[in-house]
Amino acid sequence: MSGDEGSMIIDDEDDIDDKHKIAKDTKKDVSIALPTTSAKAATAAPSHDKDDSNVPWIEKYRPHTFDEIVGNDETIARLAIFSQNGNMPNLILCGPPGVGKTTTILCLARILLGDAFRDAVLELNASSDRGIDVVRNKIKLFAQQKTSLPPGRHKIIILDEADSMTDGAQQALRRTMELYSQTTRFALACNTSEKIIPPIQSRCAVIRFGKLSEAQILAKINSVCVAENINYSDEGLAAIVFTSQGDMRQALNNLQATYHGFGTITPDNVFKVCDEPSPLAVQQMLENCRDGLIEDAYKTLSDLWKMGYSPEDIISNIFRVCKNLELREHAKLYFLKEIGITHMRIVEGSGTFLQMTGLIARLCAIGDKFKKP
Ligand SMILES: Nc1ncnc2c1ncn2[C@@H]1O[C@H](COP(=O)(O)OP(=O)(O)OP(=O)(O)O)[C@@H](O)[C@H]1O
Ligand SMILES: [Mg+2]
After folding, report:
1. What is the CATH number of domain 72-208?
2. Domain 279-369 has what CATH class?
3. Could you read off the pLDDT of 51-85 as tens digits, one per residue?
4. CA–CA separation, 132 vs 146, rounded Å?
5. What is the CATH number of domain 214-274?
6. 263 in contact with ligand 1, CB cutoff 6 A
7. Which end of the chain is more exposed for a tag (fewer CB within 10 A), N or C?
8. How many of the other CB atoms lie within 10 Å of CB of 39?
């Protein structure tokens, strides 16, 4: 990495946020259309930022303290203990996207280091070059550097999205972690801990994050709607929760995209923005299967197919809708079994219309078998 790319020492807290905006979230963010004239102006006071009109809500509402982080209560409580006694071990935080791993590390570092946060934190994420040279030069240099810290505290090196680090770089990290253990702690965030080599795992406390529950996401987006003074319907918020699948980043992005695109949050608007098969259509299709009406079910399926949705999109939607479908328990078990088998076939590569048609045929047969007399 060339030296003139700038020191990786964070000069300003906002710098961190900027990095996240540019580097990290581009892949997952839904692009946001210009506001329509019908869109209400956001009037509520922002929670953290000063000039916030163009700030993505994921950044505007990024928690700055542990109290603001939603869900994973036990995990956060464990970390809160480290923040109290000050001696944090090396950490690996792993879990699905958008559940607050990066946010949590930043909160922890802020609490531990206070004003020293600027000078005593080195943050490297997937946007930075993190090959073996960076470990040899930048990380070592930072670890050797002298900084004044609150008593009993350590410098913190945050390796975000650590699963994208090369094996070589991870190997080079092994000794570095031990050599500078007197002065420096490492915090690695990743989606799957298997991609972190075992010797690094054994040097760290592994902290796991789970997906957020529907209620947790609903509560958060509800509070954002109130803060932003948005027009919404309860069904609209339920649609956001449905599309987010336990990912808070996705939920906030979808909310903002729907708001900027349409002004109000209704299920129709949400599904237009998120470009997912409409769960209402899928629900209708499954109800037809339950009632043994293969013609009607087939028509919905072929409509969805013609709209260009991928088999993965359709089957994952079918699964999510089926979980809440009104169906006799036995029939639901068989439904889920068939959906699982079809999903497996799609993942293995045979995501054809024929497979999907076969699925609804089997579901109709099950529906017929369990029909109430
Ligand atoms: N538990 C949470 N409570 C409140 N907001 C959250 C939570 N998790 C995520 N968010 C929101 O989503 C945004 C992204 O979260 P964060 O960057 O911490 O995700 P992550 O777990 O690091 O995801 P990735 O694995 O993709 O890096 C945050 O800025 C915040 O607005
Ligand atoms: Mg992250």
Report:
1. 3.40.50.300
2. mainly alpha
3. 566 789 899 999 998 889 998 899 998 888 888 88
4. 23
5. 1.10.8.60
6. no
7. C
8. 16
